[in-house]
C-alpha cells in the first residue's frame, strides 16, 4: 500500500535490521486467490474447500475381472445391457458398470466355462473358488463408497500434492482455487559482469543468474522473467517497466543500489514515482539493500551487487515480503549460542554466516561481502549487535532457505 511519496535522501537514518525486516512484512498484503487447471496446481496452497461434485464412485462397479452374477451356480449367459435374473451371468471387467439385478462378481480365477445337459455354455464354480464364493455384494464397489456428493475431499489451506490433484479429478473438478504466489522478475545489472568463462581483470563472473531463481522459489516466489540492464538510466527504466506478457508482483534487482555514477536504480524508482519503504539498512554486509513500491503496486527489492551482501539482503527483506504476498507464515528467526567472542564494532549490525560446532555458532571464514565461500559452508546467519557478543551469548539467527 503506497504512502506519501518519499525519496532516499529524505530518509536521514537507515532502518535497523529488525525494523527493515518488520517493514518488509507490513507493507505487503496477501495476493488474491485465483483458479488454476488441476495440472498446474501442485505445490500451491488451496484457497477453498474442495467438495465432491458427485458420489465417488458415481456408479456401482466391479472390483475384479470376471462375471457379474445373480443367484446360484451354474449360470447361463445373459445379453449385455439387460437386467440379470437369478441364474444368469455376464462378463465384466474391473471398473465395469454392475448390471441391474447382479448380486456379486465372481472372479475370473474362480469360474470355469462349461456346458449344460443340452450342450449350452454355462458358467460354473471352479479354479480357486472358495466355499461360499461369491457372497452377496462381493467384489462390488458400491456407488458413493469413497465419498458422497458434496462431501469434503480436501480442506482449504493444504499444500496441494499429486494425490490431492488426482482426488480432485475424481471429484469432477476441472480447476482449483489457490492462494496467490508472487511472480518475480529478476533484473541483473553490471556492465562488468560476464556470463561464462574466466573473466579478465576488471570483470567478474555472474554469480546470480545460476542460483537466484532457485532461492526465490525456496522463499515462496515464482520467477517469470529475467532481464539484464546496462549501467544507464534508460536501460534501468526499461527493465523496471511492466511486462504484459510476464507480469510480475515483485522485481528483484542485483547491483546499482549505491549512489555511484554507475548506479541508476534509485534514480529510476524516483522517476517512476515510486515509494521507498526501506532505503537502506544499518547492517553489514547489505547496507544499500532497498525496498520500494511503484504506483502500480509492484514491489522492487534492490539487492547489492556483491554476492554475500545480496544474499543477506534477500533473506532479510525478500523472505518476509514474498511470504506475506504468498499467504505463507511470517519467516521465523531462531537463537544460537555464540561459539567465540566477537569484538565490538563501531558501526551497524553485522550479519555473519556461522557453522555449528558442538552446538555453538562459530563465525565462518571468507565472509567479505564479495565472497560466497563462507555462506556455502554455513548453517545459518547470526545477527551480531554493534557491541559484539560474548562466548555462549544467545544471538538471533536467520535460517538459510536451503537448510
Structural description of this entry:
Helix content is 16%, strand content 27%. By secondary structure, it is α+β, with helices and mostly antiparallel strands. Strands 7-4-6-5-9-8 form a 6-stranded mixed β-sheet, with no helix packed on it. Strand 23 (349-357) and strand 24 (360-363) form a beta hairpin. Helix 1 (17-26) packs parallel to helix 6 and helix 4 packs across helix 5 (265-271). It is elongated. 37% of the residues are buried.
Throw out a few tags for this protein.
403 residues; alpha+beta; six-stranded mixed beta sheet; 7 helices; 26 strands; 16% helix; disordered N terminus
Largest sheet: 6 strands, mixed
Low-confidence stretches: 1-11
How many strand segments?
A: 26
Write down the overall geometry: elongated
Radius of gyration: 32 Å
User: First CA to last CA: what distance?
Assistant: 32 Å
Going across the major beta sheet, what is the strand order?
7-4-6-5-9-8
Roughly what is the average pLDDT, rounded to an integer? 94
User: What class do helices, strands and sheet pairing give?
Assistant: alpha+beta
Helix residue percentage: 10-25%
Strand proportion, as a percent range, falls in 25-35%
Counted by DSSP, the helix tally is 7
